[in-house]
Design brief:
Helix 5 (about 110-120) packs parallel to helix 7 (about 145-165). Helix content is about 35%, strand content about 15%. The longest helix has 20 residues, at about 145-165. Strand 4, helix 4 (about 90-100) and strand 5 (about 110) form a beta-alpha-beta unit. It has a domain at about 5-165: Nucleotidyltransferase, domain 5. By secondary structure, it is an alpha/beta fold. The model is unreliable at about 215-220 and about 225-230 (pLDDT under 50).
């Protein structure tokens, strides 16, 4: 699927939306396996940075003290993201933190955590680092926004290839089961299904042609068009001939057997009556009357 996505990640002072603040935001725009553009920015919070967050992320209070406020970088982030579909690991948390800062997203968002639980049921854990290790993705700077966003991009690509490996029947069944559900991933599976159906359609060279557009084979056109008759392909020249109607049937023709329960036709009844009684002569009688 050669579609453009944006993998997004935020680092925060805690997990409580509306109370804790964003201290770093990053996004990676990609199409296929190609990274098109990246966005990364530290954000200065209004409250002091907790020590446990510094130890977890490696972001110091001095680094964020010189960073701009989120309201200053929000327009640049909006221009970067535009309307591209979002990708994130537990992306709902990232979106809620950004919405708390006044941002709004109308595009779909795909969660690699949900995808992994569906497509990798044998995984021992579904943390971003555990999935990256299982898929062979290098994750050097954990809990830094740009590194997490890029690892999320690579994990998403692995999971997307697993979706594309499903056969058409499985994709159709997923679409049927989720038809009445408000499932965010349904659109992703549906798009893969549409592309699969489109690729399975015959091309112009494979479609049957009309009489005036028949392909030239070995320097000449075929003598007759092919027709599908009773599930088999049969040419017009090989079709059984229709019975001729030039000779009308005669009334009272007994050449074909008649069912014993069928009522005889008027012509047949009259013919039988004539054959049963002798034909009387119309000559006047010459017998003398005495």
């Amino acid at each position: 699927m050669e579609r453009t996505f944006v993998a997004i990640d935020v680092e925060t002072t805690g997990l409580e939306v509306g109370v804790d603040e964003i201290i770093e935001v990053a996004a990676v725009k990609f199409s296929g396996d190609e990274v098109l553009e990246t966005f990364n920015q530290l954000v200065r919070p209004r409250h002091s940075l907790p020590l446990k967050i510094t130890r977890l992320t490696g972001i110091s209070a001095e680094a964020v003290a010189a960073a701009p406020r989120f309201s200053e970088i929000a327009p640049d982030l909006v221009r970067f993201v535009k309307s591209y579909p979002l990708v994130g690991h537990s992306v709902g948390f990232d979106i809620r933190m950004l919405q708390a800062q006044g941002m709004r997203f109308a595009q779909p968002a795909y969660d690699t955590f949900d995808l992994a639980t569906l497509l990798m049921p044998q995984a021992p854990a579904y943390r971003l680092g555990a999935l990256a290790a299982m898929l062979g993705v290098v994750h050097e700077e954990a809990h830094r926004a740009l590194s997490d966003a890029d690892v999320t991009r690579q994990v998403f690509r692995h999971l997307l290839r697993r979706i594309e490996a499903l056969d058409l029947q499985e994709l159709s069944e997923i679409s049927r089961l989720t038809a009445r559900m408000n499932w965010p991933l349904r659109e992703l599976f549906g798009e893969v299904e549409r592309l699969r159906r489109k690729s399975s359609l015959p091309t112009n060279d494979q479609r049957p042609t009309t009489n005036d557009q028949r392909p030239i084979l070995h320097g000449r056109r075929p003598a007759s068009r092919s027709l599908v008759v009773s599930g088999r392909r049969q040419s017009r020249s090989n079709r059984p001939a229709r019975p001729s109607r030039s000779t009308p049937r005669r009334c009272g023709d007994f050449s074909r057997p008649r069912a014993p329960w069928a009522a005889p036709s008027p012509a047949t009844s009259s013919a039988r009556s004539r054959s049963r009684w002798p034909k009387q002569s119309r000559k006047p009688s010459t017998t003398a009357i005495t």
